[in-house]
Predict the structure.
Amino acid sequence: MLEPDGQKALRCFIAASVHQQLRRPGLMRLLDFEESRPAIAQEIAESGAAFLDLLRQILSRADISPPTHMETTIADLIVIVSALINAAGEQDETDRRDLEGRVGRAVFGYLGVQEPEVFSSATPI
């Protein structure tokens, strides 16, 4: 179920992404590599499309100004989140709350949304 507003949904997305990366960073790097192979990329295309649709829904919520170029914004957000989280995994970071805060500031700043109150790992994953 989607969170009731876009900002909460984005915080959940960030928390889930950070949790997944910090839980098994080596595995995540391997999966990222494997997903780029054509045969595997074809197999996961459907789930990838569902993921992009979820981001479209989140960015269409009333508390987030609608992006002028939705698809470009989605692609940019994926790059921002992936880059920060992958770098943290490569550096063996373990502070989930700190990483969530950094990713959140980057995402919300990019969207021009007032920084949310606090990023915490209060959302159970």
